[in-house]
């Protein structure tokens, strides 16, 4: 009887370890996919809905950004854009 209990415990432990490994692999795949998706979103010009204009004497330039990402990553821009939500471009 004791051998059956040991075998059952070993099987249960093996199943738990397999489930943990499968979850870790799934988490890695999801994380990798999410990073790739955000990278494509940030590097592409599609759907960018806000511009930051940088005035520099020799080289003024525009940075196109996504408001939602800007707001989620910066408390300053989150507050600022909530206050200015009806303005498309701020100079």
Automatic annotation (TrEMBL):
Superkingdom to which the source organism belongs: Eukaryota
InterPro entries for the chain: BTB/POZ_dom (IPR000210), SKP1/BTB/POZ_sf (IPR011333)
Parts of the chain that traverse the membrane: none
Protein name: Speckle-type poz protein
Species this protein is from: Anaeramoeba ignava (Anaerobic marine amoeba)
Segments of this protein annotated with the region Disordered: 1-24
BTB domain ranges (all copies): 48-91
Start-end of Low complexity biased regions: 1-20
Pfam families: BTB (PF00651)
